[in-house]
Specification:
The structure is a single chain. By secondary structure, the chain is mostly helical. It folds into 2 domains: 3-89, Hypothetical Protein Yqey, Chain: A, domain1, CATH 1.10.1510; 98-148, Arc Repressor Mutant, subunit A. The chain has 7 helices and no strands. The chain has helices spanning 3-17, 20-38, 48-71, 75-89, 98-112, 120-130, 137-148. It is globular, with a radius of gyration of 18 Å. It starts with a helix and ends with a helix.
Length: 149
């Protein structure tokens, strides 16, 4: 079952369970997928990788919004955003921790031949492609800085 069909199926389940937070999050995914399909020059069908990118973007947006709400002492809104993140993250592969990233990034650094912070861009480009969906860009960046710095 494709990721898109899984989301549609889960929307029905959330409706039956009267799970408002999950339903809202899933409807958000469906909306973004429909917009991506109908955008100018888009393919008629989206691959699971395309849907995964949409889901990753939505998780990042909600985490950023939650951080902003927390900084403005709006914990009620931040909590809602974080609950939606939990509902959306179900569709992403397990994220790697910084400890799990270190050996992978170290291998990329050796392969690219980077030896200083000046070459961080090269390493980040390769690492971002290889670890797409498996790790957040911020986490990758922190590990690269630790290993090159």
């Amino acid at each position: 079952m494709s990721l898109e069909l899984q989301v549609n199926s889960d929307i029905k389940e959330a409706m039956k369970a009267k799970d408002k937070v999950r339903l809202e999050a899933l409807r958000g995914i469906k909306k973004e997928v429909i917009e991506a399909k109908t955008s100018k020059g888009a393919a008629e069908e989206l691959t699971d990788a395309d849907v995964m990118k949409i889901v990753q973007k939505m998780v990042k947006q909600r985490k950023d919004a939650a951080a902003l709400f927390s900084s403005q002492n709006r914990e009620d809104l931040a909590e809602k955003e974080l609950e939606e993140v939990k509902a959306i993250e179900v569709y992403l592969p397990q994220q790697l921790s910084q400890e799990e990233l270190k050996p992978i990034v170290q291998a990329i650094i050796e392969r690219v031949g980077a030896s200083s912070m000046k070459e961080m861009g090269k390493v980040m480009g390769v690492a971002s492609k290889e670890l797409a969906g498996k790790a957040d860009g911020k986490d990758i960046s922190v590990v690269v800085k630790q290993l090159l710095g």
